[in-house]
Design a protein that fits this description.
The structure is a homodimer of 409-residue chains. With 409 residues, chain A is of the alpha/beta class. Chain A has two domains: 236 residues, Aldehyde Dehydrogenase, Chain A, domain 1; 146 residues, 3-Layer(aba) Sandwich (Aldehyde Dehydrogenase, Chain A, domain 2), CATH 3.40.309.10. Helix content of chain A is 45%, strand content 21%. In chain A, helix 2 runs antiparallel to helix 5. The longest helix of chain A has 18 residues. Chains A and B meet through helix 10, helix 15, strand 13 and strand 16 of A and helix 10, helix 15, strand 13 and strand 16 of B.
Amino acid sequence: MLDKLCSEAKKASLVLGCSTAEQRNGALAEMATALVGRKDEILKANALDIENAKAKGISTAMLDRLTLTEERIAAISNAVKKVIALPDPLECSDHWVRPNGLNIEKRRVPFGVIAIIYEARPNVTADAAALCIKSGNAVILRGGSEAINSNIAVANILGDAVKAAGLPKECIGIVTDTSRETANALMRAKGKIDLLIPRGGKSLIRSVVDNATVPVIETGAGNCHVYFDATADEKTALDVIDNAKRSRPSVCNAAESLLVHEAVAESILPKVRARLDNVELRGCEKTLAILKDITPATNEDYFTEYNDYILTVKVVSSLEEAIDHINLHGTGHSEAIITQDPENAVVFCNSVDASAVYVNASTRFTDGEEFGFGAEIGISTQKMHARGPMGLSEMTTYKYVIRGNGQVR
Amino acid sequence: MLDKLCSEAKKASLVLGCSTAEQRNGALAEMATALVGRKDEILKANALDIENAKAKGISTAMLDRLTLTEERIAAISNAVKKVIALPDPLECSDHWVRPNGLNIEKRRVPFGVIAIIYEARPNVTADAAALCIKSGNAVILRGGSEAINSNIAVANILGDAVKAAGLPKECIGIVTDTSRETANALMRAKGKIDLLIPRGGKSLIRSVVDNATVPVIETGAGNCHVYFDATADEKTALDVIDNAKRSRPSVCNAAESLLVHEAVAESILPKVRARLDNVELRGCEKTLAILKDITPATNEDYFTEYNDYILTVKVVSSLEEAIDHINLHGTGHSEAIITQDPENAVVFCNSVDASAVYVNASTRFTDGEEFGFGAEIGISTQKMHARGPMGLSEMTTYKYVIRGNGQVR
C-alpha cells in the first residue's frame, strides 16, 4: 500500500513541480475554504479519536492537543490562508553565460515528494500540507495513531481541494496504517521519498535519524544554554533566563542550562533562585558553595534536554570555559550570551557552534515566525542543507538548466 | 589514533573558522610554495609508492595516475595558487531587523571538519586540502593505500605551510592507516566529522553512502542520457553524442544511453553507428530492426553506468516516453535533449529530475570549472544541500547571529 502511495505521490509531484505559483496558491485557497466548509466531517472524525483516546486514558495535555473545535479549525484554515501571501520559494533563480556561449540557469525546484512523520497534533496535517503545496512538493503524511481519524478526514478534504483547483489529489497522501512497520518502511523508501522531516519529541526524531536511509533533516533537539558574562546587565540576565526557562519549558528552544561567570556568581545566583522559584536547580560544586541546598548536577544532567522546570547551573572562570562547555554539551540549537562587552559578544558568536547564537536576547526566538519567515516546517539542528528555522525556501533544492547550440567539450 | 586526529582537527577548525580571508589565502600561498620547494621529498615518497605498486602488478593506467613528476607537482602547486584568487565563500551574509529590534544576521560559516575519502590519486590530497582551507574547514584526508607515502609527504608539507602562515598545522590531517577499519571508523565518527565527501569510483561511493552515519554528500554516480527529439538537428545530435560518449568515457558526466525519437530513428541511427565506430551499441527491439547486427539491451543495461565504450540505444515514440525512461533509469546527474522545438526543450527541462539538464549541448560540461566555479570538490547527485558541481560555497553552511537588548518572548 505504501508503494502505491509513494508512486502516486511521485507522479503527482511531477505535475505539481511544473505548476505555476498561481495554481499552487489557488490550491491553497481551495484548501482553506474546504477546511471550514467541511468542518463537520473533521469534527466527527475527531470525536472518534477523542473517544478512543479517553478509553486509552491518555493525559489531559495530550487530549487537549488532540482536540479540534470549530475555532481551532478556523485557525488552521487561517494558517493555510497566510501561506498564500508568502513569497513563491521557487521564483528565485540565477543565470549566467559562459565564454563558450552556454547559458547556465540555476533554478529553484521542489524536492519532489516530502514525507512528514509527526505525532498526535492534527493541525500539523494541514500546516505541513500547505507548506509542501506552496513549495511545489507532494507530501506523504504519517501522523500519530491517536489522531488518525482526524488526519484522514483533513487529508481527504485537502486532497479534494487540490483536485478542485486542477492539480492531482495525490499531491497529498496519507498513511492510514499507523503501525511502526509503515513508519519504518517510509524511512527506507529510498528513491521514492526525496526528503523526510520528522516533527515531534526526542524519541521520534532519534528513531527517524537512526533508521532512515532516505534523506532526513534532523529537527528539534535543543539542549540550549544561557551564559551570564562577567559584564552581564543584571536585569537583562534575569529577564532572559526567566523567559528562556519558564515561558514554555516543553519546547526545543527553551534553556536547559545556565552558565555564570565566577565574577558575578555570588551576587546573581541567589537572585536567579528567587526569580525561578518553581524551577529545580541542579548545580556544579561552585554553585553549591553559593546556593547550598540545591541538588548537585551530574555529568548526565549537562547532556539532558529536560523540557521541564529543571535547570543546571554551572559557574565558569572564563568566557572560553563557557564556550567549551556549550560546544561539548549543546545540540547546536540556540545559545545565548548576556554581556555588555562587545568583544566577548563577538568571540561568543564566532566560536559557539550552533544554528542560532544570541547576544542579550532569549533563546526562545528561534522560530520561523519570529525570524520573519512567516511559517516554518521545523528547526534544523544539522549543518547540511538547512540550519535553524526552516521556511519555504529550505523545502526546495535546485537544478541547473543549460542551453547551448551544439557545444561539445 | 583516529580519535586523536579528529579531536585535533576539531580544535584546529575552531581557530581556522575564526580566521580572516587574508590569513587563509596566506596559508594557500605558503602551501603552493612549499609543494614546489619540497618537491624532492614528494618525489622520493612517490617513488616508494610506484615501487610497491609495480611489485603488486597494478595496471598501467593506475600506475600513470599514481605517478608524480616535477611537472605534475608544479601543476598541483598552480592549482592551489588558482584557489587563492577565488572569491571568499564565507564573505556573503545577510541581515535584517525585526519589529521588536532583534538584529538577525544569517552568516556563512564553515562546516568545521570535512573528511575526504578518495582513491589512488595523490593530486586529490592537495586539491581537497586547498578547497577546505579556502572555505575555512579543517580536513581529514583518507586516500587509497597505493598512494599512501606520497599522500603523507604532501599532507605533511601542506600542514607545515599552514603552520608557517600562523594557523594550526592540524587543519590538515591525514589518516596514515589505510585499512578498511579506519575508513569505516571515519564514516561513523558522528559528532567529530561535520561532513564526509567521497571521491572515487562507484564501489567507494556506494560503500560510503551505505555505511556512513556522519553527514555525507553523495557524488559522482552518472548514468547520463542523450535524447534526440523528432526535430533534432542532425549535425548537433551526432556531435553531442560523440562528445558525450567518447571524449572521456571513464568519467561520470559521459553518456551511457542514447534515446531516439522514432520519427528520426531510421535516418540517424546508421549515422550514429558509423560515427561511434569503436563503441559497442546495445539496442532495444526497435533499434535492432534498424541496426540488425547489434547486441540486444537488457533491462540491467539501462541501469548500468559503463564508464566504457558501450552505449545503450532505445527508440521512443514520444518526448514523454523519453522523460519517463530517464527519470526511471537515470542517477540524477546530467541529461541532454537535442531538439529544435523550444516547447519540447521547456518540457524536458521542467520534467527531467537531474542536477543538470542540457538543451543542445553535451553532458560533459557538468564540471565546476566549466560552470565557472573555478574549482570543484565533486559533483553531487543528491538533492539535499548541494546538487551538481560543488564549488567553495557548497562547502559552507550558515548560522544565525541574533543581537538584542534584552528582548524576551
